[in-house]
Amino acid sequence: MRIGxxxxxxxxxxxxxxxxxxxxxxxxxxxxxxxxxxxVAAGLVNPIVLKRKRLVHEAHHxxxxxxxxxxxxxxxxxxxxxxxxxxxxxxxxxxxxRAWEDLGLEASFAPFIGPLYDLPHPALQGQALxxxxxxxxxxxxxxxxxxxxxxxxxxxxxxxxxDTLTVANGQICIQGQLVDACVLxxxxxxxxxxxxxxxxxxxxxxxxxxxxxxxxxxxxxxxHKNMFLLPDGDNHYQAGSTYAWDHITSGPTQAxxxxxxVKLQGWFSQxxxxxxxxxxxxxxxxxxxxRWGWHPDxxxxxxxxxxxxxxxxxxxxLGGMWPQRxxxxxxxxxxxxxxxxxxxxxxxxxxxxNWDASCPYSSGDTDLNPKTTPPLDTLGIFPGKWIxxxxxxxxxxxxxQMVGRTL
Length: 407
What we know:
Elements: E1 2-6, H1 10-21, E2 25-29, E3 44-45, E4 48-49, E5 54-55, H2 59-77, E6 82-83, E7 87-91, H3 94-103, E8 113-117, E9 128-132, E10 136-138, H4 140-154, E11 156-158, E12 165-168, E13 171-174, E14 177-179, E15 181-184, H5 191-197, E16 205-213, E17 222-224, E18 228-231, E19 237-240, H6 254-265, E20 273-282, E21 291-294, E22 301-305, H7 311-319, E23 342-344, E24 361-363, E25 366-368, E26 386-389, H8 394-406
Parallel strand pairs: 1-2, 1-15, 2-11, 7-17, 15-22
Antiparallel strand pairs: 3-10, 4-5, 6-10, 7-9, 8-9, 12-13, 13-14, 16-19, 16-20, 17-18, 18-19, 21-22, 23-26, 24-25, 24-26
Helix pairs in contact: 1-4, 1-7, 2-7
């Protein structure tokens, strides 16, 4: 089966790897220009939104899927994909240290709140560093470039812009190349996605960041306060990034440069030199939730979009969904991440005996009874596939997820 994937950012690359492992013939269509949002992304894999001290939605699911995904990719490519070390939160005073420790007492945060450390650099101003467990930083350009090279050899990579995409007679033609199915992973503005699926609820954000250096002691830890300071490993660092919702397509601005430097000087007193100034457009949605699905009239045409600033964390799990089931996309359908009726079959190799027989679940169009049906794998539902729980069973859906995490 020939799979076409339009776009080779974080979403498209994850889709391509999952298609490769599923045994499909992959055709990647991408301009090959390293100026998209994914290419300038910091690559932070962070289960906590540090600014607001809340968890990324379904953080546990994403972390486990991500670990397995990147380990398998690294093994295929025979390379390291991550910078060393976790992310740390800079805690400015005693009160913030106490708040960090209290956060670790909450059951949902406990797996991610790590120990405290002394400040590792003389220019850092604060009380301590709090480690974010299970966090890290993906070497995004390296990951994307190495993946592209792999697919150019093992499969097919088509460069240049896509000017033609047609669907007819059960096949899709992209730039003259026939494929049996296609997933659009364009990011913003999603031209071909909106052509076939209609307007998406985009709320794109422009992010700007600086690449800086300094003379003096090196910093080896990834630090967050009101922005990130991230070592690149070559005596250069990434600082940023900003968030703006206006002038989306404009280039780097002096205002953003000054904002970053002022914030940085508030907690890092080192004199720095600006080496580069970059800008990218995050493909965020109005509700900050991703969108994916298959076309109601062309079931072989799907899309994945809206990963925002969390693509390094969320793309491994999201990219693994689309080969598993053909869920039609609807503007009225809540996305799976917002809907507690969606659960991971990967957590449920067999149906627990103590499930209430009055609570059905469905796979595709078939209603099943969890008390009387055989193990999921005998039904063609394998680890990594998805089960849709009836909308009337909200409580059961939540209980199901809780049971799954303990298996």
